[in-house]
Amino acid sequence: MGLVSWMYLHLRVDVHSGTRTQYRLLQTLST
Question: Is the sign of the CA dihedral 19, 23, 26, 28 positive or negative?
């Protein structure tokens, strides 16, 4: 359960810090 919690937390942080990058990447691919 600890591992799952760590992965979930890491995923949230990754999404939070990479949202703008991912959005920019999507725009680049969409162009």
Answer: negative
